[in-house]
C-alpha cells in the first residue's frame, strides 16, 4: 500500500521534476521503474534522457574473473558482484564507450578469438562477426562520429605489425549497418602493450612509438575523419604507462615501475576538444617507502585506476601478500587510495590461495560508466 501511495504522489509532480529525480537514480533502478507507467517508460527509453543520464553518471571500476563480473564505486569502495555471461568466460580485453563494453574473448591460439559488445546494466550481449577472422595480435577501439549521431557507434580494428605484418590492415565496423570496411591506412607504430587504449569524447587514444624512433607520443584515432594522428609527445616513460579519461574531456597518464616503493607520477593533458595542440603537465607525484606496486607481476592483470579530486589515485589491482613464512603467498585484489602523502586507504576485496606459482584472480578490468545505451549491432 505504501509503495502504491508513493507512486501516486510522484505522478502529481511535473514531468520535469520527475525527470530530475530520475537523473539521480542508478541505471539499475531505472530499469525497474520503466513499467511504472507509459509516461515514465517513454522518458527513460528516450535517447535524450539516456545520454543526459550518462553524462551525469559517476565512474565505476569493472573487472572480470573467470565467471564473475565485479563493479566497484571508487569513491565509496562499495562493490556489487554478478555472474558473468557464460559467453564471456575467458574474456581477455575490454574497451569501454558510453557504458558499452567491447570484449575480446580468446586464448593463446592465434585465430581462436571472438568479439562481442556487452551492456552489463541491460544484460545484453551481441556477437560481432569478423570480415575474415580476429587474431590475438589485434587492437580494438570504439567510438562515434562527433559530427553526426552519437548513437551510431563504430568499432576499430587494426593488427599489430610486430606480430602480424602479413595481415596488417585497418578496419571499421559500423554497428548500424553491421558491416566491416577496410581503411586506406598504414600501421607504422608500436602501441605500448602495458597501456590500454581509452575512449574519450568519441575518439580512441593510445601510448605509442613510431618505427625506428625513440620518442613516445599519444596516438589518436578520430572516428569522424577515420584517421590516425599523433596528437602530442608523451611524458618520458618511467616503467609502465596507464591511460584513463580525466574530467570527461582530458587524459590522465599514470606511470610507475614494476617494483614496490617505486614512485608514482600522474600527468594530465589539456582539453582534447578540437584540433588544437594537446599538452601534458605533471599533476602530482608520490614517492614514499610504503608505496605498493600497482602492477606487482608482469603476468598479472593491469590495474584499473582513475584520478579523483584533490590529487588522488584510486586503483584496483592485484598483489601478493607475504605473511613472513616460506609458504606461497596468497594473491589478493586490493583497492588503494593514494595521494601525495602516500596510501590513505587500502581495502582487500579478495584473497586467493594457489598450490604453486601465480594464478591471476581477475582477467581484465576497465573504468566504466553504467548506462542504458542499447546495443545496436
TrEMBL record:
<dbReference type="InterPro" id="IPR050796">
    <property type="entry name" value="SCF_F-box_component"/>
</dbReference>
<dbReference type="InterPro" id="IPR017451">
    <property type="entry name" value="F-box-assoc_interact_dom"/>
</dbReference>
<dbReference type="InterPro" id="IPR006527">
    <property type="entry name" value="F-box-assoc_dom_typ1"/>
</dbReference>
<feature type="domain" description="F-box">
    <location>
        <begin position="7"/>
        <end position="54"/>
    </location>
</feature>
<protein>
    <submittedName>
        <fullName>BnaA01g31760D protein</fullName>
    </submittedName>
</protein>
<dbReference type="InterPro" id="IPR036047">
    <property type="entry name" value="F-box-like_dom_sf"/>
</dbReference>
<dbReference type="InterPro" id="IPR011043">
    <property type="entry name" value="Gal_Oxase/kelch_b-propeller"/>
</dbReference>
<dbReference type="Pfam" id="PF00646">
    <property type="entry name" value="F-box"/>
</dbReference>
<dbReference type="InterPro" id="IPR001810">
    <property type="entry name" value="F-box_dom"/>
</dbReference>
<dbReference type="Pfam" id="PF07734">
    <property type="entry name" value="FBA_1"/>
</dbReference>
Amino acid at each position: 500500500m505504501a509503495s502504491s501511495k508513493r507512486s501516486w504522489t510522484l505522478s502529481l509532480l511535473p514531468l520535469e521534476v520527475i525527470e530530475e529525480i530520475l537523473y539521480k537514480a542508478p541505471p539499475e533502478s531505472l530499469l525497474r521503474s520503466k513499467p511504472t507507467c507509459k509516461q515514465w517508460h517513454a522518458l527513460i527509453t528516450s535517447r535524450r534522457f539516456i545520454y543526459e543520464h550518462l553524462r551525469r553518471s559517476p565512474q565505476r571500476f569493472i573487472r572480470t574473473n573467470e565467471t564473475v563480473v565485479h563493479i566497484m564505486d571508487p569513491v565509496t569502495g562499495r562493490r556489487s558482484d554478478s555472474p558473468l555471461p557464460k559467453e564471456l568466460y575467458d574474456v581477455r580485453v575490454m574497451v569501454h564507450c558510453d557504458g558499452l563494453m567491447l570484449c575480446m574473448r580468446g586464448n593463446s591460439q592465434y585465430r581462436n578469438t571472438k568479439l562481442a559488445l556487452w551492456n552489463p546494466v541491460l544484460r545484453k550481449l551481441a556477437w560481432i562477426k569478423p570480415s575474415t577472422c580476429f587474431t590475438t595480435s589485434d587492437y580494438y577501439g570504439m567510438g562515434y562520429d562527433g559530427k553526426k549521431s552519437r548513437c551510431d557507434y563504430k568499432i576499430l580494428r587494426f593488427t599489430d605489425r610486430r606480430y602480424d605484418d602479413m595481415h596488417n590492415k585497418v578496419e571499421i565496423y559500423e554497428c548500424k549497418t553491421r558491416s566491416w570496411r577496410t581503411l586506406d591506412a598504414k600501421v607504422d607504430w608500436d602501441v605500448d602493450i602495458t597501456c590500454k587504449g581509452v575512449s574519450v569524447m568519441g575518439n580512441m587514444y593510445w601510448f605509442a612509438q613510431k618505427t625506428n624512433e625513440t620518442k613516445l607520443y599519444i596516438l589518436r584515432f578520430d572516428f569522424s575523419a577515420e584517421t590516425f594522428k599523433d596528437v602530442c609527445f608523451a611524458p618520458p616513460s618511467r616503467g609502465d604507462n596507464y591511460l584513463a579519461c580525466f574530467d570527461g574531456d582530458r587524459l590522465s597518464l599514470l606511470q610507475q615501475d614494476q617494483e614496490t616503493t617505486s614512485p608514482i607520477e600522474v600527468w594530465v593533458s589539456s582539453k582534447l576538444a578540437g584540433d588544437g595542440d594537446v599538452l601534458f603537465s605533471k599533476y602530482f607525484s608520490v614517492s614514499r617507502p610504503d608505496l605498493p606496486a600497482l602492477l606487482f607481476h608482469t603476468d598479472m592483470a593491469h590495474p584499473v585506476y582513475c584520478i579523483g579530486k584533490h590529487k588522488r589515485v584510486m586503483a584496483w589491482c592485484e598483489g601478493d601478500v607475504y605473511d613472513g613464512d616460506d609458504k606461497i603467498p596468497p594473491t589478493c585484489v586490493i583497492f588503494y587510495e593514494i595521494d601525495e602523502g602516500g596510501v590513505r586507504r587500502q581495502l582487500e576485496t579478495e584473497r586467493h590461495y594457489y598450490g604453486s606459482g601465480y594464478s591471476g584472480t581477475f582477467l581484465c578490468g576497465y573504468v566504466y560508466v553504467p548506462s542504458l545505451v542499447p546495443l545496436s549491432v
